[in-house]
Amino acid sequence: MSETLTICFANNKGGSGKSTTCSNVGYFLAESGKRVLLVDGDMQLNLSLAFFDEEKVLSFAAGEKNLYRAIQKQSDISECIVHTAYEGLDLVPSSTLMSSIEFELFSKWQREYILKKCLQKVKESSAYDYILIDAPPTLGGWVMNILAASDYLIVPVEASPWGLFGLSNLFEFLSEAKNIAPDLKIGGIAVTKVDGRKNYFKQTMETLQELPAHVFETCIHLDSSIEWAQDNSKPVGKYKRSSRSSKEYEKLTEEVVQICR
Q: Which domain holds residue 107?
């Protein structure tokens, strides 16, 4: 069996399109025949909401089959896996209790590696080709956990005046993370929420080229289909395959496969 690759999606700036990118890349990987496990690492539950309705997501959050319980017990994460409606695509849901995870990790021994240990059996089983982790829009001990558990990092960046804000902090954090996650590679920067009519898009791309990271060629444009897909708890590729964003996420997924291997 092939080695399981773990890819996390992180940016300390909120609204960058992390959950949307993680969910849609996961969907298109599964559609191409790959076995994918999604891990919702954010208390906002957006990755979970991309595949289940609010009532179901809240029931996961209040129950025992969620990431918070696995981290709390430092147990095998396979106990928390739920199946989505799509073949080859599973999910570890999040919980609103993740809001206290930083405090709870503080006193744990080898706290930066708890998620890595929880994922170990699933990863070694080669049951999945990819594990995709959606990180919260913060920098701290929990995000360090996610980086330590990952082989690659993808940074979604919103093409807007505020989209680049904080990127320097993220890259400083990544340089510190090298001590904890020495094997982590930056897969690339995925540019999202693009409005090609605005001059700022060109400026964004020029600024990103100066960073020590690959910038994916495929950009994700603003598209109402994404919001409608989210409202229906579906990936945009399932909600409206003919949409611009669906085709872009499919191309972006192909780029991710080429880079992260």
A: 5-259
